[in-house]
C-alpha cells in the first residue's frame, strides 16, 4: 500500500465515521424538531409522545427536558413539570431556565412538604458528587495512593533512607485509600438512593407495602422523595421512600417518577 | 279608702308571715365531706384527713372519730380552719377539721365514715379507700397515679370506635392545691401509631377546673386536644404523650382556683410528665362496595357540580365534587367517575378546608376533575353513587349524584391549552440541542481503577523483593556466593579458554578445575578450598544430583588433577574439556 492509497483510506474511514455520527446526532434532533412543531401548533399530546420517544431511546438533552417541563406546565401537570425541570437543571445549558421553571411550579402546588435540613455530612457528600463527580474523585484517590507508594519505595530502590519519607508516604497511601473508599460510597449511594417526584395528585405513604398497611402520611403532587432502590426491589409496585420531612414509608411506584 | 286600708293591713300580715318563711324556708341542709391528701401512700407517709362542713348552719360539734383500722391517729385534737362568706346577703360558713394519720402496714385500707353533729342532726361522711405501698414502688408510680401531686392523663372520647372514626384525645394535667403551673411544653415526637392525627385548636391559657378524684381534690387543665382517626382495625395502643411542666409550690393559703399560670414567687422546678399508654379496640367497617366507598367516616354531605353546561372544543370543563361535614376529611379519597370517551381527562385538583375548632375536625374537601372536549357534541357524565360510613347511625350512607350534561360546540383542531401566566416568560427551546446518552456505571467496572490499584501494589511487591535480595546479598555470605557462583564460574571458564588459546594447558586445566569446584562449593556453601574430589562428589550425591552428571564431574575433575602428570594435550581436546565443563556447570545450575 503506497502513501497515497493509505491517505485516501484514512480520509474515507474518517468521513464514514463522521457521517454515522452526524446521522446519529441528526435523528434525535429531527424528532425534537417535529415535537417542537407539534407543541407550537398546540398538539400537546403529540408533542409529548415525540418527546417521550426520545427519552425512551436514551437520547436526552437539557432542551428536551426543559421543553417537556414546559409542555406539562401547559396541561397543569405540575408534578410532571417539576420532574422534568429538575432533570433539565442538571444540564449546564438549561440550568438557569430550569430553575426559573421550578420556582414557578413550586408556587403552584396546593401542598408544600416540610423539609428537614440535611446533615452537614450529607451536604458535603452531595457537594462532592455534584461538583467533582465520583469518577474524578476516584482518580484523585488513585493518584494520591500511587504517589504514596512511589514515595515509599524510593528508599528501597535508591538504598538511601530518609526520616520523613516513610511516614509521609504512608499518610498519602491512607488518604488515597480513604478518598477511593469515599468515591465508592458516593457511587453506592447514587446507585441505591434516587430522588423522585410525586406526579399524581395525592397518594398515601404507608408503613408497609400494601394498601391495608398503617398510614404514615399523605403525599401530594410535587413532593420530593428519596427512593431506596435496594429495599424497593423486594416489593414489586412499591417504593420505599424517605419524605422531605424525614418520615419513611412505602408508596406505590406508579405515583412517583424517579429522577 | 277603707278598702285601701284593708289591702295594706292584709299585705302587712302577709309579709309578717312570709318573711320568716322566706328566711328559714331557703335554709339548705349543710354538706359534710371527708377528703384525704392522698389515696395512695407509702408506708410511713402522713395522711391528712379533712372533714369539711359547708353551707348554712349554726352549731357544729367536733366529729366523732371511729377506729381507723391500719392507721394510727397522730392528733386527737384537730386543727380547725373556719371561713365565713356573705353572698347576696346570705351568710355561709365553712368548718374544716384536720386530722393526721399514719398507715401501720401496707395494703388496701379504708377510712370509715366519720360522724358529725350539725345543728343537732348527725351527718356521716363517705368512706374513702386508701392504698398503702412500699416506699420504692410508690415512688416509681408517683407521676402515674392520683397519689401524686401532679400527673398527666390522656382522655379518649371512645374506646370502641370503627376504622376511620374521629376520636377526641384530650391531654389533661391534674395537680393538687399548693402547686402552680408556670409553663408547659409538649415533648415533640409523639407518634400515635395506627392513627391519623390532627391537632385541634385549644386555648393558649387553659382554664382550670376543680375536681375530686378518689376523694382527693385536684385541679384539672386541658393542655392539648387531638383528633385521632384509626387507620386499621384491631387492638391499637396510643403511646404515652409527654409534656415538660414548670411548676412551683405555693403556700397552702392559696385559693384552689388560682390562675393556671401563677406568678413566679417561690421555688420552681421543671418535670417531665407522661400519660399512660391507652389500648383501644377498633372495629372494622362493614363491607362496602369499593366503587362507591370513598373512605369517609363521619357525617357528611356530598354534592357535585359542573362549571358550565356549554363549552367550546378545547375549553376546560370542571366537575367539582364537594364533601362537607365532620369526620376524617384528610383521609377521603377522590371519587372515581367514568367520563365519556370524547373528553380528555387532565390531572384533577384537590383542596381541603379543615376547621379545627369546636373540639372536632370538620370542613370541606373538594375534588375538581378537569376535562377538555376534543370534538363537538353532547356529553353526559353519568350519575354516580358515593357512600360513606356514619358511626352515629352505624351504617353506610349512600348519596347519588345526578348526571351532568355538557354541550360542546366549535370545530376540532382549535384545541387550546392553558398557557402559564404572563409573568412566566419561559419559552420552549427550538434550536439545535446537544444530545447525550446518559449512563451510570459502578466504579468497580472501570479497568483503570483495577490498574490504578494493582500496578502500584505489584511495583511495591517487586521493590520489596529487590530490597530483600540486596539485603541478603550484603548480609548472607553463603547466599551471596550461591548467587554469584554462575558468574564466577563463567569467568573462570573464559579464563581457561584464553589460556588454552595461548597454549598454557596447565593453567587452563587449573582454571577449569577452579570453575567446577568453585561453582559446587559456592552453590552448596562448602569451603572455598581444601576439599578433595571425593568430597565434592559425595556433596553432589547428597544433593541427589543425577548420577551421570556426578560421573562426568568426577571424570573432569580427575582429568584436571592429573594433567600435571600427563603429556601435553592438544588445544582442541582442552577446548572440548572446557565445553564439557560449561555443560556440566549449566546442568548443575539447574539441579543445585
> Which two chains touch over the largest interface?
A-B, 66 and 54 residues
Q: Rg of chain B, please?
A: 55 Å
What is the general shape of chain B?
elongated
What's the CATH H-level homologous superfamily of the largest domain in chain A? Tetratricopeptide repeat domain
Total beta-strand segments of chain B: 29
Structural class of chain A: alpha+beta
Largest sheet of chain A, order of strands side by side? 6-5-4-1-7
Indicate the low-confidence ranges of chain B by residue numbers.
1-8, 11-26, 137-146, 252-259, 412-416
Number of strands of chain A: 7
Describe the structure.
The complex is a heterodimer of chains A (259) and B (592). Chain A has three domains: 3-108, Serine Threonine Protein Phosphatase 5, Tetratricopeptide repeat (Alpha Horseshoe); 120-192; 194-258, SH3 type barrels (Roll), CATH 2.30.30. Helix content of chain A is 61%, strand content 14%. With 259 residues, chain A is of the alpha+beta class. Chain A contains nine helices and seven strands. The model of chain A is unreliable at 19-24 (pLDDT under 50). A five-stranded antiparallel sheet of chain A has the order 6-5-4-1-7. A two-stranded antiparallel sheet of chain A has the order 2-3. Residues 1-8, 11-26, 137-146, 252-259 and 412-416 of chain B have low confidence and may be disordered. Chain B is α+β, with helices and mostly antiparallel strands and 592 residues long. In chain B, strand 5 and strand 6 form a beta hairpin. Classes of the chains: A alpha+beta (259), B alpha+beta (592). Chains A and B meet through helix 1, helix 3, helix 5, helix 7 and helix 8 of A and strand 24 and helix 3 of B.
Amino acid at each position: 500500500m503506497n502513501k497515497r492509497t493509505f491517505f485516501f483510506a484514512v480520509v474515507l474511514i474518517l468521513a464514514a465515521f463522521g457521517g454515522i455520527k452526524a446521522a446519529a446526532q441528526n435523528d434525535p434532533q429531527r424528532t425534537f424538531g417535529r415535537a417542537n412543531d407539534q407543541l407550537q401548533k398546540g398538539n400537546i399530546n403529540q408533542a409529548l409522545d415525540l418527546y417521550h420517544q426520545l427519552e425512551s431511546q436514551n437520547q436526552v438533552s437539557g432542551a428536551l427536558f426543559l421543553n417537556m417541563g414546559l409542555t406539562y406546565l401547559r396541561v397543569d401537570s405540575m408534578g410532571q413539570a417539576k420532574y422534568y425541570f429538575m432533570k433539565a437543571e442538571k444540564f449546564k445549558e438549561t440550568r438557569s431556565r430550569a430553575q426559573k421553571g421550578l420556582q414557578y411550579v413550586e408556587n403552584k402546588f396546593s401542598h408544600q412538604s416540610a423539609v428537614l435540613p440535611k446533615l452537614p455530612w450529607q451536604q458535603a457528600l452531595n457537594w462532592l458528587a455534584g461538583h467533582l463527580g465520583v469518577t474524578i474523585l476516584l482518580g484523585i484517590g488513585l493518584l494520591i495512593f500511587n504517589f504514596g507508594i512511589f514515595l515509599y519505595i524510593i528508599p528501597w530502590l535508591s538504598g538511601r533512607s530518609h526520616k520523613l519519607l516513610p511516614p509521609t508516604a504512608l499518610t498519602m497511601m491512607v488518604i488515597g485509600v480513604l478518598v477511593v473508599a469515599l468515591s465508592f460510597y458516593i457511587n453506592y449511594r447514587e446507585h441505591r438512593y434516587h430522588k423522585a417526584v410525586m406526579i399524581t395528585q395525592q397518594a398515601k405513604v404507608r408503613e408497609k407495602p400494601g394498601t391495608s398497611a398503617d398510614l404514615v402520611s399523605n403525599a401530594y403532587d410535587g413532593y420530593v422523595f428519596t427512593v431506596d432502590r435496594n429495599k424497593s426491589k423486594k416489593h414489586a409496585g412499591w417504593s420505599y421512600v424517605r419524605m422531605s420531612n424525614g418520615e419513611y414509608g412505602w408508596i406505590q411506584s406508579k405515583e412517583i417518577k424517579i429522577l | 279608702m277603707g278598702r285601701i286600708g284593708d289591702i295594706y293591713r292584709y299585705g302587712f300580715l302577709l309579709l309578717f308571715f312570709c318573711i320568716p318563711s322566706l328566711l328559714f324556708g331557703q335554709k339548705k341542709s349543710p354538706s359534710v365531706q371527708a377528703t384525704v391528701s392522698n389515696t395512695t401512700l407509702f408506708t410511713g407517709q402522713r395522711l391528712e384527713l379533712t372533714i369539711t362542713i359547708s353551707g348554712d348552719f349554726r352549731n357544729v360539734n367536733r366529729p366523732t372519730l371511729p377506729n381507723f383500722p391500719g392507721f394510727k391517729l397522730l392528733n386527737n385534737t384537730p386543727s380547725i380552719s373556719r371561713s365565713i362568706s356573705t353572698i347576696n346577703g346570705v351568710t355561709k360558713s365553712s368548718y374544716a377539721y384536720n386530722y393526721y394519720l399514719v398507715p401501720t402496714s401496707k395494703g388496701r385500707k379504708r377510712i370509715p365514715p366519720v360522724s358529725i353533729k350539725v345543728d343537732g342532726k348527725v351527718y356521716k361522711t363517705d368512706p374513702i379507700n386508701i392504698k398503702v405501698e412500699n416506699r420504692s414502688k410508690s415512688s416509681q408510680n408517683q407521676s402515674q397515679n392520683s397519689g401524686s401531686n401532679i400527673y398527666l392523663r390522656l382522655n379518649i372520647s371512645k374506646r370502641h370506635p370503627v376504622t376511620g372514626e374521629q376520636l377526641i384525645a384530650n391531654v389533661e394535667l391534674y395537680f393538687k392545691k399548693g402547686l402552680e403551673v408556670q409553663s408547659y411544653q409538649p415533648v415533640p415526637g409523639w407518634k400515635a401509631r395506627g392513627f391519623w392525627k390532627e391537632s385541634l385548636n385549644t386555648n393558649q391559657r387553659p382554664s382550670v377546673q376543680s375536681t375530686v378524684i378518689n376523694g382527693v381534690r385536684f385541679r384539672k387543665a386541658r393542655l392539648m386536644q387531638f383528633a385521632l382517626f384509626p387507620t386499621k382495625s384491631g387492638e391499637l395502643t396510643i403511646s404515652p404523650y409527654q409534656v415538660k411542666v414548670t411548676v412551683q409550690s405555693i403556700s397552702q393559703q392559696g385559693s384552689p382556683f388560682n390562675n393556671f399560670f401563677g406568678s413566679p414567687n417561690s421555688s420552681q422546678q421543671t418535670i417531665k410528665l407522661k400519660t399512660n399508654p391507652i389500648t383501644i379496640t377498633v372495629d372494622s367497617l362493614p363491607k362496602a362496595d369499593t366503587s362507591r366507598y370513598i373512605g369517609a367516616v363521619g357525617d357528611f354531605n356530598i354534592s357535585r357540580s359542573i362549571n358550565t353546561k356549554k363549552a367550546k372544543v378545547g375549553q376546560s370543563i370542571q366537575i367539582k365534587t364537594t364533601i362537607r361535614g365532620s369526620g376524617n376529611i384528610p383521609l377521603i379519597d377522590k371519587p372515581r367517575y367514568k367520563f365519556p370517551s370524547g373528553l380528555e381527562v387532565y390531572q384533577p385538583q384537590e383542596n381541603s378546608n379543615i376547621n379545627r375548632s369546636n373540639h372536632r375536625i370538620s370542613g370541606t374537601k373538594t375534588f375538581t376533575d378537569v376535562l377538555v372536549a376534543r370534538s363537538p357534541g353532547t356529553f353526559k357524565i353519568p350519575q354516580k353513587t358515593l357512600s360513606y360510613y356514619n358511626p352515629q347511625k352505624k351504617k353506610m350512607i349512600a348519596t347519588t349524584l345526578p348526571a351532568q350534561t355538557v354541550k360542546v360546540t366549535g370545530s376540532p383542531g382549535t384545541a387550546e391549552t392553558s398557557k402559564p401566566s404572563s409573568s412566566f416568560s419561559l419559552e420552549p427551546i427550538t434550536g439545535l440541542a446537544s444530545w447525550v446518552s446518559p449512563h451510570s456505571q459502578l466504579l468497580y467496572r472501570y479497568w483503570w481503577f483495577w490498574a490504578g490499584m494493582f500496578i502500584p501494589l505489584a511495583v511495591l511487591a517487586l521493590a520489596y523483593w529487590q530490597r530483600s535480595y540486596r539485603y541478603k546479598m550484603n548480609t548472607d555470605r553463603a547466599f551471596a556466593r550461591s548467587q554469584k557462583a554462575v558468574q564466577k564460574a563463567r569467568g573462570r571458564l573464559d579464563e581457561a579458554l584464553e589460556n588454552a588459546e595461548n597454549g598454557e594447558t596447565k593453567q587452563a586445566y587449573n582454571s577449569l578445575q577452579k570453575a567446577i569446584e568453585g561453582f559446587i562449593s559456592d552453590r552448596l556453601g562448602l569451603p572455598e578450598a581444601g576439599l578433595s574430589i571425593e568430597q565434592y562428589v559425595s556433596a553432589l550425591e547428597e544433593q541427589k544430583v543425577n548420577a551421570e552428571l556426578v560421573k562426568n564431574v568426577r571424570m573432569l575433575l580427575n582429568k584436571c588433577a592429573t594433567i600435571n602428570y600427563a603429556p601435553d594435550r592438544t588445544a582442541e581436546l582442552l577446548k572440548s574439556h572446557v565445553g564439557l565443563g560449561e555443560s556440566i556447570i549449566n546442568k548443575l545450575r539447574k539441579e543445585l
